Amino acid sequence: MHTFFVNGKKISTSSDKKLLHFLREELNLTGTKDGCSEGACGTCTVIIDGKATKSCLIPLEKLIDKHIITIEGLTTRESDVYSYCFASEGAVQCGFCTPGMIMSAKALLDINNDPTLPEIKKALRGNICRCTGYVKIESAILKAAKFFRENLPLPKEEHSGLLSERFTRVDAIEKALGTGIYVDDIRIDGMVYAKALRSTYPRAIVESIDISKALKHPETVTILTSKDVPNNKIGHIVNDWDVLIPEGGTTRYIGDAIVLVATLTQEALDEVLSLVEVVYKELPPITSPIEAMKEDSPKIHESGNVLTTETLKRGNADEVIKKAPFVVTKHYSTPFTEHAFMEPEAAIGLIDDEDNLLLYTSSQSVFDEQREISHMLQLDPKKVNCQAQLVGGGFGGKEDMSVQHHAALMAWHIKKPVKVKLSRQESINIHPKRHAMEMEFTSACDEKGKLLALKATLIADTGAYASLGAPVLQRACTHAAGPYNYQNVEIIGKAVYTNNVPAGAFRGFGVTQSCFAIENNLNLLAAKVGISGWDIRYLNAIRPGDELPNGQIADSNTAFDKTLLAVKEEYEKHPRAGIASAFKNSGFGVGVPDTGRCTLSIEENILHIRTSAACMGQGIATMATQIVVETTGLNPSEIICEQADTRRTPDSGTSTASRQTVITGEAIRKVALKLKSDLQKGMSLKDLEGRQYYDEFTSITDPMGSSKPNPKSHIAYSYSTQVVFLNEQGKVEKVTASVDVGKVVNPTAVEGQVEGGVVMGLGYALTEDFPMVDGVPKVKYGTL
């Protein structure tokens, strides 16, 4: 029997669980999060005898007579101060890491209430945040330290909620204190657990599957094979992804699911899976796109190994390059990279009182889930209801099916609640990554550095399945020439199937790869001409009325040149400064239907904003609230923004392509105008009880290959220039980012997005990688 104290309460148990799982599963203290169970991320941080400790690695027998404090054990004063400081400073985005951050902060401030910034950084070295870039977390801790040190009362802040105000994120408090609900926090009576057996090989014929021994295990509920799947092919865009690989089928990557097992307890899953006997005939994996494109290469899919080809051509790049005074040709390679969102994938499926399938989910689009799951089960979509919980980060990595379809499939068969979640290593091995690309760029300019032409080829490794490989390739191509004013371009891109882990959406969506190539070429051209990297960019910067290389005319709000002017002085006075610029679209663009929708309803004197726009930490509910307040004049306290729910919220499209604030935000503004009209007639929310208002907004753009002389590729762009300063040892000393963001809805939120993006970009540029050997990932979470 192990005896210890949790939040002052004596606990005696004989459980052999690790502390994290005991806290969550036995004591229901779910504010302590499970981000990896490997001791790497710090989301599970608690305080043991005054020391910040990762609870996922601590066996209970090591805790005899020790005192443990979880986020739920903070005093009222501590809860108020930490939640206020983290919320007001913008230190909360997806929120999954925040309780662990606060516990590490408490451990520091309990012994040092006047820490220096280096001391705070040291205290947080065991805590990962993938959203914020840490700047605002450090500011929040400094602020909290002052409140404790000087015993200051918390200010009673009142926000108008208008646009451009530093309005506190509406979900920040519940996230900070661990009371917000993520999928893995949910417990349901009678719930069972499911897990897929994954392929042993990236490419192999599954000759036989024997589940007889596994079925006899006393904890087995049932085992499903491909025969139990009504429609075994699903996909975000292309239905090419097997739900379960059948006997006689061929695996395409190491993450392919063979069977799906359900057991009474989570602990029994691996034991039952080990009893499933699969006979494989191993085949050589195809791991190079170049090899995959050869005529004699085995087909990974019946349609062939080239998923898609994109061509963007304007002017005559070949002729201009031949005559150009300065030409640079370079080959660039970029690697696969992992999203490393803090919350591993999880879903719960169950059957509701009306015999419909209900799915609790953590994804970037409940309607995409509804579409794919109803397709898999061959059900009317109205029979499938997907409800979003809080999402612990996404960055594009939660657009595809990972566990949702398996939870739905098992629940539909056994008519019981089913939870499916991935371990951190399973998450790394299974979900789509950023595309690795091989690129050859030839750029030309005149004697003064004026850009003349670009000829580029891009080969994207889309891995085993299509995922979002096609639109990612489109973005890479439409942005490949950069935000500059020249029109002789020839860009050819191919997305190619291999037996590597699939590649799909990831922050930047293909633009990060082609931007790396074009920006390096610009620096090389500048050196040949004898001008600076700043000079060549400012000379060629797209300005209002200019044509982008894709033909689109920049509108009057374009301020790319101003982002360059903002960093000019710093860049020129530092001896070790590097510079690059970029632009990125908002909205799907290139002719893809793109509609945001919103319903407003008045219930018990409260205005409910209903939109299915998923929030992974970017602050959708806050954005929606501020737009409604700005438009109607209502007080934020009179407004609730609901979570995405296919029954209650209209389809607002996927949270991807930086589209929700622009596209769904405009739908929110339009419908708010209808409510405003009634309010201006002297009616109150009480008078309007039960009323509903609806509107939508559709972005109209032109498709790739449009015959128009100046096609509208995207509805809006953001422009950025960044300068990176190195110290004398060649290490990054400082980054200055200047961004044309358009209308600022919330300055704190915008700063957090930029800071988080800069830090993620530094990781991509300097250290992050996703090495695979013969299609098998050779990476651990702690060493990404």
Q: Which structural class do the helices and strands define?
A: alpha+beta
Shape: globular
Report the top-level CATH class of the largest domain: Alpha Beta
Binned, the helix content reads 25-40%
Task: Please name the CATH topology of the largest domain.
Answer: Aldehyde Oxidoreductase, domain 4
Approximately what portion of the residues adopt beta-strand conformation? 15-25%
The overall strand count is 30
CATH architecture of the largest domain: 2-Layer Sandwich
Radius of gyration: 27 Å
The number of distinct structural domains comes to 4
Total helices: the number is 20
Could you give the order of strands across the largest sheet?
8-11-6-18-15-16-17
- The poorly predicted ranges are none
Model description:
There is one protein chain. This protein has 784 residues and is an alpha+beta fold. The protein folds into four domains: 35-53 and 67-178 and 747-784, Orthogonal Bundle (DNA polymerase, domain 1), CATH 1.10.150.120; 192-284 and 344-430, Alpha-Beta Complex (Aldehyde Oxidoreductase, domain 3), CATH 3.90.1170.50; 306-337 and 433-589 and 706-742, Aldehyde oxidase/xanthine dehydrogenase, molybdopterin binding domain (Aldehyde Oxidoreductase, domain 4, 2-Layer Sandwich), CATH 3.30.365; 594-699, Aldehyde Oxidoreductase, domain 4 (2-Layer Sandwich), CATH 3.30.365.10. It is 27% helix and 24% strand. The protein has a seven-stranded mixed β-sheet. It has a five-stranded mixed β-sheet with strand order 2-1-5-3-4, covered by helices on one side. A five-stranded mixed β-sheet has the order 13-21-20-19-14, sandwiched between helices. Helix 11 (366-377) crosses helix 12 (404-414) and helix 14 runs parallel beside helix 15. The protein is globular and about 80 Å long. It starts with a strand and ends in a 7-residue tail after the last strand. 55% of the residues are buried.
